[in-house]
Amino acid sequence: MITLDDFEIFQDPTLAGRLAKIKQTLDPKFEVIGSQFVDAFKLKTQRPFYLHIAKHLRRHKNPPPDTWLAISEGTRGYKMMPHFEIGLWPDKLFVWLALLSEVQQKAYYGQQLQKLQQSPNLFDSKLTLSKDHTQAEFLPLTPKNFTSVQQRFAKTKKGEFLIGHLIPKADPMFQDKRQQEEFLKSELNRLLNIYESIIIR
Questions:
Q1: Cα–Cα distance measured from residue 1 to residue 194, given in angstroms and rounded to the nearest whole number
Q2: Does domain 4-199 have CATH number 3.30.930.20?
Q3: Average pLDDT value for residue range 34-41
């Protein structure tokens, strides 16, 4: 499970030090957590899913401000398609269904997201939105915010659409393995249902 100690990795100010701690401490946890959800998604959807763990290969000077695992239907990558992310900022856990700026067929997915807005109970789900995966910020899931983020995604080259959660490290789940496991299972199942609704052709 992700613990409070894991957030301390981001206190290391050096590139080499932080990368080493991510590799030694977080990546093995991501491997366990991610593999469980890959198997669960395969079982539920009868489609292939693959685990990708951030390697930060383009980092040559500044240490990474966050780190994550991703789950997608792509064997060689994930940014070009809708995918799931679980990761850490220095003070938050994030759990997203993400459509980044690199997504292929943005027009199609923009339309699918527009249809998603009509889903029953969507705005009662306590999910949140983000328009930029590089920022530890979120917007409340309201019809107005949904429309704003969806249109920016559909109409601009750099537009992104993320739906899910940002959980502050003060949350009790980081001291309760069972609570954390139940939360991740519940919310990723919810996001998987959304995922399936927007990839249907």
A1: 25
A2: yes
A3: 97
